[in-house]
Design goal:
By secondary structure, the chain is mainly alpha-helical. It has one domain. Strands 1-2 form a two-stranded antiparallel sheet. A two-stranded antiparallel sheet has the order 3-4. It is globular and about 45 Å long.
């Protein structure tokens, strides 16, 4: 089970699923469970169990996006294997950060967490 397997390395409070906010915990989160399959992935069908309600992070994985003004165009290298820079740039997606901010402002926050903990609750 994902939660047991990754408990010792969780960068925050494992009991609540809330991520830590210290610089060290934020740095550990960058590489936390990178090799683990997504807990919302149905391993038998290869389909996402929460696709219709997937978080912004999931919606943005793959297409070329800029995470801020003047930032490099980031994209999933597997999705664009063999593509030229121009081909990647032609697929750039504009991220609706303002819309996400509006939606998040309407949700009472108890702290940041990861998809795995959201699915457990």
């Amino acid at each position: 089970m994902w939660t047991v397997e990754h408990e010792a390395a969780f960068p925050g409070d494992f009991q609540t699923g809330i991520l830590g906010d210290t610089p060290e915990e934020r740095e550990r989160f960058e590489s936390f469970a990178n090799e683990a399959p997504c807990p919302a992935l149905d391993t038998e069908t290869g389909r996402c169990d929460v696709y219709k309600w997937r978080p912004m992070t999931c919606r943005l994985f793959g297409p070329p996006v800029r995470m801020g003004e003047g930032q490099e165009l980031a994209h999933c290298e597997l999705c664009f294997k063999g593509a030229s820079e121009a081909e990647v740039a032609a697929c750039e997606m504009e991220v609706p950060f303002e819309l996400e901010s509006e939606i998040l402002a309407e949700i009472p926050s108890k702290g940041e967490t990861v998809v795995a903990f959201a699915l457990l609750k």
